[in-house]
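User: Could you go from structure to sequence for me? I need the amino acid at each position, not a summary. Structure tokens:
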């Protein structure tokens, strides 16, 4: 169900507290729960924050790991003795009796913002029912949050560009450091709408920071503060060189309090403080702050604007030091004026480019439009890759062997070492540190330098931009690209969110289809039509498992490679002509292939052969034709169990159950008990002997069957001497009878061995 009120909600003119209050009221009314609290996630401050009409402002520190867990999927908390869950429940509902109520946590993830919605219900059954009925509402809330965040960021972006342009002009026109820093502090106060702003600079000799500029303060004590590194919010920001925030400084025990500092803060009446480091590249010079005399919430946009102004303040401090050092030499002074003018020109060019690229995104040109614009600007070859090195856009004409090798990486690149491909792979692996890389030119394969700039968001490298440029223009183009990466990062994040939503919808439909109740069939068919597949028409069900072998010591993709390989496979299947629908369920890739369009086993084998690499192996099984919606679950079970028919050690195998003779009878749902009895009757004596004597007779039987009745072949499979195989066959003759190698007996033994394999796999894996 969805909310008509939210669908008609006019976002302009509303603040975030009002919007979250409206959302909470709609959730209470629709889901029938008494109290709803929405915690807004601010990644840059590592905080979950409540800003909701009718609820007291509060904030809670949260680690990246805990935040990732909260945002993954709906959760039901029956107990919460400590940690983030306990703090969230206590701050949201007070001290509760966990024996009478359970808490429900629903992640609300929009394109540019995230939050969690908490409420309490009497029991787990009620919680499950409410979660099931809230999926559409949660998606609608995510859309509302995304729209509001986009609207808010647009207004901030407009004000930020204007302020940064004015500030850049003042930096270039004013050499007096105090005047520039005072102008920056005033701009910060205006843009963040805070009554107080101030700047503290670092004293490296005394290892502390001292007050340099204050705007909006009234007490002399505050304007003369000094803080040792690590003391208070200011000293800790200077020590850790990262943004920090508090909504109530005097009562916040996360900071090391100093009596003189606390007294100055108390006299000034300050409650909330946000501080960002003034840093450019590796140079740290101080901290820029805004403060409020009431408790308030600072947003990601506040941090972004303040960080941009802090960057300009850093430039001002640097420029001032440069001008002072050359004040006695006229020729050096003139040079510094040229440097300042050039810096101003670069800032203007960067802002202009940022605006142009943003307009391209708004007009739907996407990353391809951005790439074309950059290629025209640098008059060279430009390539944009994702975090794994997959080329997602290319513009300009490749001009040498290196350019062609880079542009031709149109599929997921194979992991290689040495040569141009190995050099590219090594650069991609090093970008995780967030530093730009310059590859030298003037070689046989690379005529020009190649500038590689990582595209990052929230501390995560999402991709890279590769530009071929002459050496004398490297510094100029690097400054331009730093602005362009923000636009590319935004578009990549947008694409990720859409892909994740589509994958989740496909996975949910497949999961419901494979566990379908008769009364839900019509609904599932209708959902399938909305997603582009007619489930009522005959299909084969394909089930694919993949495994990535050891990617090599120190490889940065050790954890990401399996997920990347699975994503690649899903994309390839979705693009295949003979594939109706694909998704991931229970860790397996499931694909629906229409009946009558060809040989599904051959099609799947051909596609997997193109995907397979030296480090990835695929095992797949294809079911018989499913002719009604209720049969997909049985077909999935059969194909899943059919994976055990894959030969040991194979890198690619596809089992077509429609061509497997009587074997599909083993894989049908509901026959496990009879299969277990059959296996025990045929092989019980051998299994008992193996268990009592730690022998290996069952495995010897399997190897003998796999080798087509050849003792030498069985010895090769087992890695033992052929005489050992003969000895074991004699022992098997004692246990099973002298006729156990007769064709009829051997068929029974092979079926029993196969039954034991997939029954064991069912218990340990599925």
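Assistant: Here is the amino acid at each position, in order:
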């Amino acid at each position: 169900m969805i909310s008509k009120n939210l669908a008609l909600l006019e976002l302009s003119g509303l603040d975030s507290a009002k919007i979250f209050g409206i959302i909470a009221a709609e959730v209470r009314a629709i889901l029938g729960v008494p109290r709803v609290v929405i915690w807004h996630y601010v990644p840059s401050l590592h905080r979950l924050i409540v800003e909701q009409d009718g609820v007291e402002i509060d904030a809670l520190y949260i680690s990246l790991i805990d935040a990732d867990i909260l945002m993954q999927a709906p959760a039901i908390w029956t107990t919460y003795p400590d940690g983030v869950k306990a703090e969230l429940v206590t701050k949201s509902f007070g001290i509760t009796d966990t024996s009478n109520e359970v808490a429900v946590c629903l992640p609300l993830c929009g394109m540019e913002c995230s939050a969690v919605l908490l409420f309490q219900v009497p029991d787990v059954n009620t919680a499950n029912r409410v979660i099931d009925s809230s999926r559409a509402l949660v998606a609608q809330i995510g859309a509302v949050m995304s729209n509001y965040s986009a609207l808010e960021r647009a207004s901030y972006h407009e004000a930020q560009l204007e302020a940064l342009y004015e500030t850049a002009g003042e930096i270039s026109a004013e050499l007096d450091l105090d005047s520039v820093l005072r102008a920056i502090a005033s701009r910060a106060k205006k843009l963040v709408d805070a009554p107080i702003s101030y700047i503290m600079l670092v004293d490296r000799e005394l290892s502390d920071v001292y007050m340099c500029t204050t705007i909006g303060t009234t007490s002399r004590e505050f304007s003369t503060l000094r803080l040792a590194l690590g003391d208070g919010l200011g000293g800790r920001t200077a020590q850790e060189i990262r943004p920090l925030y508090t909504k109530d400084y005097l009562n916040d025990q996360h900071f090391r309090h100093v009596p003189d500092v606390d007294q100055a803060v108390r006299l000034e009446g300050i409650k909330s403080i946000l501080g960002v480091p003034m840093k450019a590249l590796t140079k740290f010079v101080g901290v820029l702050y805004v403060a409020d005399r009431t408790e308030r919430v600072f947003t990601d946009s506040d941090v972004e604007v303040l960080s941009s102004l802090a960057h300009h303040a850093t430039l001002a401090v640097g420029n001032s030091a440069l001008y002072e050092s050359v004040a006695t030499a006229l020729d050096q002074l003139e040079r510094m004026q040229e440097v300042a003018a050039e810096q101003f020109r670069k800032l203007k060019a960067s802002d202009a480019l940022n605006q142009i690229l943003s307009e391209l995104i708004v007009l739907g040109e996407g990353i391809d439009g951005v790439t074309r614009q950059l290629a025209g600007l640098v008059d060279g070859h430009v390539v944009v890759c994702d975090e794994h090195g997959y080329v997602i856009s290319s513009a300009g004409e490749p001009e040498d062997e290196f350019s062609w090798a880079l542009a031709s990486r149109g599929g997921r690149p194979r992991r290689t070492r040495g040569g141009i491909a190995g050099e590219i792979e090594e650069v991609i692996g090093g970008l995780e540190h967030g530093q730009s890389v310059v590859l030298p030119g003037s070689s046989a394969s690379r005529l020009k330098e190649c500038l590689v700039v990582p595209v990052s968001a929230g501390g995560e490298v999402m991709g890279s931009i590769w530009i071929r440029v002459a050496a004398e223009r490297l510094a100029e183009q690097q400054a331009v690209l730093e602005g362009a990466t923000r636009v590319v990062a935004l578009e990549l994040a947008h694409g990720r969110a859409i892909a994740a939503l589509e994958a989740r919808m496909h996975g949910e439909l497949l999961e419901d289809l494979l566990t379908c109740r008769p009364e839900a069939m019509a609904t599932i068919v209708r959902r399938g039509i909305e997603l582009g597949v007619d489930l009522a028409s005959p299909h084969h069900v394909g089930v694919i498992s993949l495994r990535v072998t050891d990617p090599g010591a120190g490889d940065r993709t050790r954890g990401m490679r399996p997920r990347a390989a699975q994503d690649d496979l899903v994309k390839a299947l979705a693009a295949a002509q003979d594939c109706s629908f694909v998704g991931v369920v229970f860790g397996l890739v499931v694909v629906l292939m229409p009946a009558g369009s060809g040989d599904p086993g051959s099609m799947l084998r051909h596609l997997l052969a193109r995907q397979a690499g030296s480090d990835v192996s695929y095992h797949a099984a294809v079911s018989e034709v499913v002719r009604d919606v209720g049969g997909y679950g049985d077909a999935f079970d059969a194909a899943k169990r059919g994976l055990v028919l894959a030969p040991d050690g194979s890198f690619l195998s596809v089992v077509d159950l429609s061509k497997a003779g009587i074997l599909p009878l083993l894989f049908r749902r509901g026959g496990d008990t009879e299969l277990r009895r059959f296996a025990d009757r045929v092989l019980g004596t051998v299994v008992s002997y193996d268990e009592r004597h730690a022998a290996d007779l069952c495995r010897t039987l399997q190897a003998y069957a796999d080798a087509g009745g050849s003792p030498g072949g069985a010895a090769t499979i087992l890695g033992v001497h052929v005489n050992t195989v003969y000895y074991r066959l004699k022992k098997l003759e004692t246990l099973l009878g002298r006729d156990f190698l007769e064709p009829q007996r051997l068929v029974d033994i092979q079926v029993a061995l196969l039954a034991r394999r997939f029954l064991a796999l069912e218990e340990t894996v599925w």
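One structural detail worth keeping in mind: DSSP finds 25 helices and 22 strands in the chain.
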